[in-house]
Amino acid sequence: MRSLCEFFYNNLKAGNEVVGFQDVFFCPLYVGDLAHVLLKLVDEGAGGLFHSFSRQPISKYDFGCLIADRFGFDKKLIRPISWRDGGLAAARSPNLRMDSTRLQKTLGELLPDQAQGIDRFFHSWQAGWREKTLSFAPAD
């Protein structure tokens, strides 16, 4: 399963038109930032339930545009639509916002925003981390 970030990256790099839901909001968090959060929680001895997401919501369309901008792709390839017109197989809420206030208070720091996460994704992608990670997977 690819992340939404990889979905946009792969399609935009190939010059494929994709749709971006203008009315679906979520709080994506780069996996490297999630790893930082988890390690800090362990170090702090924190317990309980935490929502581990970025600190503010963004539409899936705007998220795709941020990726296009950061990687220098044509964001005109992202067609803004409503989730109602997307032909989704599974019913889901367009409001996937989560509140990470408790987590931020426990960590004593703000969680990254999407631009910061996408910037880290960009640098790790450029450094070949995707290929390095895939090299650990067993061969079929």
Features of the shown structure:
mainly alpha; two-stranded antiparallel sheet
Tell me what you see in this structure.
α1 (4-13) packs across α3. With 140 residues, this protein is mostly helical. Helices cover 44% and strands 9% of the residues.
Structural class: mainly alpha
H-E string = HEEHEHEHHH
Gyration radius (Cα, Å) is 16 Å
- The percentage of residues in β strands lies in 5-15%
Q: How far is it from the N-terminal to the C-terminal residue, by CA?
A: 17 Å
Strand line-up of the largest beta sheet:
1-4
Shape: globular
Unreliable runs: none
Major β-sheet profile = 2 strands, parallel
- DSSP summary, beta strand count: 4
Helix content: 40-55%
Number of helices: 6
Summed over residues and divided by their number, the pLDDT gives a mean of: 89
List the helices and strands and how they pair.
Layout: H1 4-13, E1 18-21, E2 25-26, H2 31-44, E3 58-59, H3 60-71, E4 78-81, H4 101-107, H5 114-126, H6 129-134
Summarize the structure.
Helix content is 44%, strand content 9%. With 140 residues, the protein is mainly alpha-helical. Strands 1-4 form a two-stranded parallel ribbon.
